[in-house]
Write a structure and sequence with these properties.
7-stranded parallel β-sheet; 10 helices; alpha/beta; two-stranded antiparallel ribbon; about 15% strand; about 300 residues
Length: about 300
């Protein structure tokens, strides 16, 4: 795990490609998510284990510095794959995981935010990731049956114990984020946000105001980019000799400096395609065309 702030050398990406997570950890804004390394419903394995390990290693070799996983992908499997592929972790590599949800099947998700549950989940993630501190530990869902202060208080205690470096939150409103910020330091948010879904724009604005990373989930709109609703996307893609997915990711990178998408894939070819979005420079005309794609 990263223990100090690495120096950005002259051969590193430009500053607009880097976000300072928690104000101190530089990460390239286009990261890699591990959900697609597990089976349908994020349950069980997908394909051969060595293929998943190879894709994780390829992501890092291609310059990814932010790996986003969760304890319930598998469950447990995605974290184990991260450790198998990448431990011992390079100094610049930031590992993010999530806790606060228990899985009992491929379609059953149970929010679990009691202090003893969160502590046990964090401890289990530490073991699976083979580390003594998690760079970014994200509360996968706020538990409506547990006071927010109790949930964040547990994570803050784990941070003070050195087991968590930074705290993140997943799927919440702008008002909830403001409340959380009044209780403790928050480094990141994960909400659904993509070319076709801007419903969390208010949350993004809070992130921008407080210098929080916004890790959008479903950054490629979960396959909807191939539908008629996104037909105008093809014109922009053609102008850049790019795929629709690459343009969708480039749009996120251009839309706000707080956006740090972590698209996932189990395919080396798709990985290379996704990371190619870093090289695309969208014009004002491109952005205007893409902004118009969102439904009213």
């Amino acid at each position: 795990m990263a223990t100090s702030v690495p120096i950005i050398s002259s051969t590193s990406p430009p500053l607009d490609d880097v976000f300072l997570l928690g104000g101190e950890l530089p990460v390239r804004r286009l990261g890699y998510g591990t959900a697609q390394l597990t089976g349908p419903g994020y349950w069980g394995p997908r394909g051969e284990r060595q293929d998943a390990v190879a894709v994780l290693r390829a992501a890092v070799e291609r310059g990814v510095t932010l790996i986003d996983t969760a304890d319930n992908y598998g469950p447990g499997l995605a974290e184990e794959l991260v450790a198998e592929a990448l431990h011992p972790y390079r100094e610049h590599l930031v590992i993010a995981t999530k806790g606060g949800v228990v899985r009992t099947s491929d379609s059953a998700w149970h929010v679990a935010g009691r202090p003893e549950q969160l502590r046990a989940m964090c401890e289990a993630s530490l073991r699976r990731l083979r580390t003594d501190r998690i760079d970014l530990y994200q509360l996968h869902r706020l538990d409506p049956d547990v006071p927010m202060a109790d949930q964040l208080g547990t994570l803050d205690a784990l941070r003070q114990e050195g087991k968590i470096r930074h705290i993140g939150l997943d799927t919440l409103t702008a008002d909830q984020l403001e409340q959380a910020l009044s209780l403790t330091g928050i480094a990141s948010v994960q909400n659904r946000f993509n070319l076709l879904d801007r419903s969390s724009d208010a949350v993004l604005k809070v992130c921008e105001a407080h210098h929080l990373a916004f890790l959008p989930w479903f950054p490629l709109a979960n396959g909807a980019l191939t539908g008629e609703a996104a037909a105008a996307l093809a014109g922009v893609a053609d102008r850049h000799d790019a795929t629709r997915g690459q343009i969708a990711l480039a749009w996120l990178l251009h839309r706000s400096p707080a956006l740090c998408p972590t698209p996932g894939t189990g395919s080396p070819v798709h990985l290379a395609e996704n990371l190619g979005a870093r090289e695309i420079r969208l014009s004002a005309e491109d952005m205007s065309c893409l902004e118009a794609l969102a439904p009213a």
